[in-house]
Amino acid sequence: MPKQAGGVVLADNNGVTTGMRRHGFKSIAMAAGLALAGLSSVAGHAAAPAPVGAVASPAPQAAAEPGGVSNIAPTTAGATPAAAPASPLLAQDGAPAVRIDPLVGHPQDGVFGLQTQVTKNGEFAHWMHNVVLFPVITIISLFVLALLVWVVMRYRASANAIPSKTSHNTLIEVLWTLLPVVILVLIAVPSIGLLQAQFKPAPVGAVTLKAIGNQWYWTYQYPDHGGFEITANMLKERNEVAAGERARTDADGPRLLATDNRIVLPVGVPIRLITTSNDVIHSWAVPAFWIKLDAVPGRLNETSFTIEKPGLYFGQCSELCGARHAYMPIAVQAVPAPQFAAWVAAKGGTMPAAGQASNKVIPQPGADSNPTEPATDYKAPPAGPNPATATTPATPQGATQNPAGAGNAGQ
């Protein structure tokens, strides 16, 4: 009987071998044809799914997120398409290619103190911290410590068997009342000036940037440059991304601070920053700009600043806004004005006339005068036998969309 080994039939010695030799040439030709057909079939099955019982290689594990919550922003409807990937105006994330300064624009390991400031207000605040506040705090702390040590040593029980009965000293009481007042007045003068400068209205010709907070990402609009919109999400690490998702690299920025889309702003041009929110209170904060401005639902907050040095600057949301509060970073790329104009053109935007004041209406989300929301035409009900009893639909409030008169008012 023939035997089978490894899929090949072996003949015994009962004459079958003689027949195989007789037809040897024909068998070799058939084997060659089967081999060629096998090569083509192997290529066709390379992309086929693994058979049942086979062990597949595990896919990269995605970052853990709360149930039912996604950190990826929805794609903006009707967004202006960016320039071609080969365009020299754009880097991988749509911003001009700029190298990260290891000493400016982001936190540094083992370094204490404020970040290097690149705005006038930030430079003044940095000077005030180093020259005014820190020396005053240090001197007062050392003075109080010296007084405590002197009192402990001078008036200890072993050195004063009979304690003093002195209860008042007019000179000392006048000094400890007037000196703190003088110190506070001296500190208040530069403090009020800095506070006023932080909320100074932007001059004519400023670039308007509207930052909108979401759970948990940022959306940016450029009203003066065609109204195009950019959505920025945090870039995850290589061991956290899913298949086909972009991971952070060192060129994108530090961990937890790099974004898939940077916002681009010009150097030396006043920036008019407007913040708001679509859900809860967020805060747009970039330490190198000395900017921290809350984004409140149904409200517009505004400030202005001017970036004096090109580079990459990173920040984060600084208002507790939910489970992924720590994962909505801010990445700002400051470039010269001509490069900013080229980036706007690559994004499909337009540049306003030089020195032209911003004439764009910046509506508040949910406001009654928001032109971006569809208007609801109200038709009065037809008059019946008793018009006084006709039911009038409640008009929703602008910011909250709650029916007027509802809620816990007065309780």
TrEMBL record:
Main location, first listed in the record: membrane
Protein's UniProt keywords contain Chloroplast: no
Record membrane topology: Multi-pass membrane protein
Enzyme class per UniProt: translocase
Cofactor(s) annotated in UniProt: Cu cation
Biased composition (Polar residues): 356-373
A GO CC annotation given for this chain: plasma membrane
Annotated source species: Sphingomonas rubra
Protein purpose: Subunits I and II form the functional core of the enzyme complex. Electrons originating in cytochrome c are transferred via heme a and Cu(A) to the binuclear center formed by heme a3 and Cu(B).
Taxonomic path: Bacteria, Pseudomonadati, Pseudomonadota, Alphaproteobacteria, Sphingomonadales
Record-linked Gene3D superfamilies: 1.10.287.90, Cupredoxins - blue copper proteins
Membrane-crossing residue ranges in chain numbering: 28-48, 132-153, 174-195
Cofactor: how bound: Binds a copper A center.
GO BP terms in the entry: ATP synthesis coupled electron transport
NCBIfam families the record matches: CoxB
Any one GO molecular-function label of the UniProt entry: cytochrome-c oxidase activity
InterPro entries: CcO_II, CcO_II-like_C, CcO_II_C, Copper_CuA, Cupredoxin, Cyt_c_oxidase_su2, Cyt_c_oxidase_su2_TM_dom, Cyt_c_oxidase_su2_TM_sf
Protein name: Cytochrome c oxidase subunit 2
Enzyme Commission number(s): 7.1.1.9
